[in-house]
Amino acid sequence: MTSATESADHVSVHLTGCGRETADAVIAALDAAFPASPGTLLAEKGGPVAKEAAPGKPVIWCTVVDTRARRARTDTAPVPLGTPVSVDLFGAAQPVRQVQEELAAAFGVEEHGTVPGEHELEVRLLLTPVSGTSSAG
What we know:
By secondary structure, this protein is an alpha+beta fold. It is about 20% helix and about 30% strand. The chain has a six-stranded antiparallel beta sheet with strand order 2-3-1-4-6-5, with helices on one face. Helix 1 crosses helix 2. The termini are far apart.
């Protein structure tokens, strides 16, 4: 059931297997594509937002995207991504597909499974760095 502040146009995005800097890059790419309500990075652990996961303690970075504010990308260059990131998208089918399309425009994307429901869709993706976007060092 959705709350009063969420609608069928909202997609819940959960990032795992990455640190805060990488999560910020993914969320910034989503904020650029869906600018109505910039995402707030939250760690699903209760308490203060973690900077990095403690050894043996995974962190899930979360945001909610409002797809009603989708706009065309003005920067078509891939977004630099330091490491691969697992992403789970939850929501109504069309909004989930819109978020998936925007992620695919910004990163390399491998689909790792889809679970359809009666009114919602869950998609698991692996975002990967696109060739030529890693910072040289």
